[in-house]
Amino acid sequence: MRGAAAAFRTLQRGIPGPLRRRFAMDGASSNGSEPLPAPEGSPRAGETLISEGQATILFPSANEVFYNPVQGFNRDLTCAVLTEFARLLLQPKGIQVVIPGEDHADAGSPQPPEEGDGASAAPPRVAKAGEVCEGGLRVLEALAASGLRSIRFAKEVPGLRAVVANDCSARATDLIGRNVAFNGVGALVTPSMADARMLMYQCKADREPFDVIDLDPYGSPAHFLDAAVQAVSEGGLLCVTCTDMGVLAGNNAETSYSKYGAVSLKGKFCHEMALRIILHSLDRRANCYQRFIAPLLAVSADFYIRVFVRVFTGQAKVKASASKQALVYHCVGCGTHHLQRMGKATAHGNGFKYGAATGPPVGPTCEFCQQRHQLGGPIWAEPLHDVPFVQRVLAALERSPQRFQTQERMQGVLSSIAEELSDVPLYYTLEGLSSTVHCNTPSLLQFSSALLHAGYRVSLSHACRTAVKTDAPPAVLWDILRCWVRLHPVKRERLTDTSPAARILAVEPTLQASFAIRADANPSSRKRGLKRFPENPEAFWGPKARAKAGGGISPSLQEKRKQLQNKRTQRSQGADPEPSPCKRHKEGRCLQEGELPLAPPRPGTASCPH
């Protein structure tokens, strides 16, 4: 660890350190005044070339180092966000970030010198991709694997001073070094082999924080969050990916609590709740060190979530953290949800007074269907995104339309995010509301128009195709559904008296809903036909098998499914299958001819085959 910390100090002084001497190309420039050398080398036996963005890496055919092409959207989005973050931080320093092929008409330019500074002010410095920028950002990719992401940072993101590509695997670190040399980015990227947590703790102890820390682990990032919130600089950027969606989406609530300090719920809003759980976990860990987070962007895509947050220090701001978290009451019958803030902040003179919140917002049972509530959280209850920053990223994408391979999807997702109601946590889905009352599903425009006619705000969500975010209370939603059922009747004779549908429809609506289509019910991203929810480009487009330390080729997930298919029902050939009595037979309520029941028969039991 001391050797790694010494290497980081040499990077700051611009002197090649031991790690750089090991992996850098001959003739590489450390001050950015000369272009980086051209790629050299060729794949070894059993290796292939993989190209993504402007990077081309050597990759072993055996599953020794992890790589998933599905995460290409994740890496593209990170490069776009990191570029605008660099532009945001370097602009006050008089450094202009330049992207090749970008239309600079609307691009951010350095702030002009104030009056009285003299006419002989220094010309603005220009930061270009692939060159070392003095005074630029220091980036850590804590779990680099093949180093693809770090190499893309070096070749596509301007304004960087140094990039450290770290991995705890010796095979991965060796591959990172070869890929760095192959792409000719040795002046920017330094390979490192260390435990990611120890590396970040050491940087904290040496007071050499990183401006950007990227965490993209296989599974949960919970192990690294405590070190990351300490090792990032003041106002620095944390980029965190979670692929353990089974835990965050409610399948394992107890595991979610042990990892993230929040109980996940299996509701229709589970993907947005997953985003809010990881933000809550980040803020809670930062609070231990008098720090707090400010989310820039939070995205739910494919089988993972990705959040970008800035970390600041301030004891006064930390006091407000309790009022930013909330518990979730979720009805198991109709799916209605309510939020209960953990604390409250009230204006007091020129500041705020903080205290405990009052509640709960619900009674012992649901007021609509009389079913019980599940309690989840705490979750982050403040906005998920910084809308002005999202619009900056969108504007940059429009200025360089051919920059990324997943550009169309990025524009669709970010446009949908910019249109979301930022002050409304969680959402409902049209099929979820309709299935509760067993009616036909209204169209998205019809339901949104009904809410707008009623005087409430409404938006869609990037996390779910049929999601509806609105500030209307649940009573209004059910009134609209009752009015819809009047126009499209359901067969009430099939509903039991105690079912949620029967209890909801038994109440007369107090609101007369209008389903006439309004022009403002259709958001701009939907009108323009942007790719908000694109289809998977190929089969089995999802998570891949974990890399093996021994270098063996792990079977793919679809191969595992075939191997495990019907494993419980497979029997050896020639063996007589054991009879499997039905549930009624086990309880003694069903008899087959010539067979004794497993329990004493009840009166009036009829004979029937299983």
Could you walk me through the main structural features you see in this protein, from its secondary elements to its overall organization?
With 610 residues, the chain is of the alpha/beta class. It is built from 20 helices and 21 strands. It has a 7-stranded mixed β-sheet with strand order 7-6-5-8-9-11-10, with helices on both faces. A 3-stranded antiparallel β-sheet has the order 13-12-16. Strands 17-19-18 form a 3-stranded antiparallel β-sheet. The longest helix is centred in the first third of the chain and has 19 residues, at 72-90. The chain is globular, with a radius of gyration of 29 Å. The termini are far apart.
Unreliable runs, pLDDT <50, ≥5 residues? 1-40, 116-120
Biggest sheet layout: 7 strands, mixed
Spatial order of the strands in the main sheet? 7-6-5-8-9-11-10
- So how many helices? 20
> Nearest-angstrom radius of gyration?
29 Å
Structural class: alpha/beta
Oligomer: single chain
Distance between the termini: 67 Å
User: Tally of extended strands?
Assistant: 21
Backbone shape: globular
| Beta-strand content bin | 15-25%
Q: What is the typical, i.e. mean, pLDDT? A: 84
In helices, the fraction of residues equals 25-40%
Q: How is the secondary structure organized here?
A:
Elements: H1 2-13, H2 18-23, E1 47-52, E2 55-60, H3 72-90, E3 95-98, E4 125-128, E5 137-141, H4 148-156, E6 160-167, H5 170-183, E7 189-193, H6 196-205, E8 210-215, H7 222-231, E9 232-242, H8 245-248, H9 253-260, H10 270-287, E10 291-301, E11 304-313, H11 315-318, E12 325-331, E13 337-341, E14 343-348, E15 351-356, E16 373-380, H12 387-399, H13 407-419, E17 428-429, H14 430-437, H15 444-453, E18 458-461, E19 464-470, H16 474-487, H17 500-505, H18 524-527, H19 557-564, H20 583-586, E20 590-591, E21 606-607
Parallel strand pairs: 3-4, 5-6, 5-8, 6-7, 8-9, 20-21
Antiparallel strand pairs: 1-2, 9-11, 10-11, 12-13, 12-16, 14-15, 17-19, 18-19
Helix pairs in contact: 3-4, 6-7, 7-10, 12-13
